[in-house]
Amino acid sequence: EKSALSIIDYSLAYKTANGLIPALQNIDLTIPKGKTVGLVGESGSGKSSMAWSIMRYLPSNAVETGGAIRLAGEELLDYTPYQMMDIRGRRMSMVFQDPSTSLNPTIKLGEQIAEVLMRHRGLTKAQAWAEAEAALGRTGITRPKEMLQRFPHEASGGEKQRVVIATAFACEPELIIFDEPTTALDILTARQILDLFNQLREETNVSALYISHDLGLVSRVVDRVSVIHKGIIVESGSVQEVFRRPKADYTRQLIGAVPDPDRWVGVDAPGEPKTLLRIDKVGVRYGAPTKLQAMFWPTDAETVGFWGAKDISIDVRKGELLGVVGESGSGK
Ligand code: ATP
Ligand code: MG
Question: Where are the beta strands (DSSP E) in 74-188?
Answer without folding.
Answer: 74-75, 92-95, 175-179
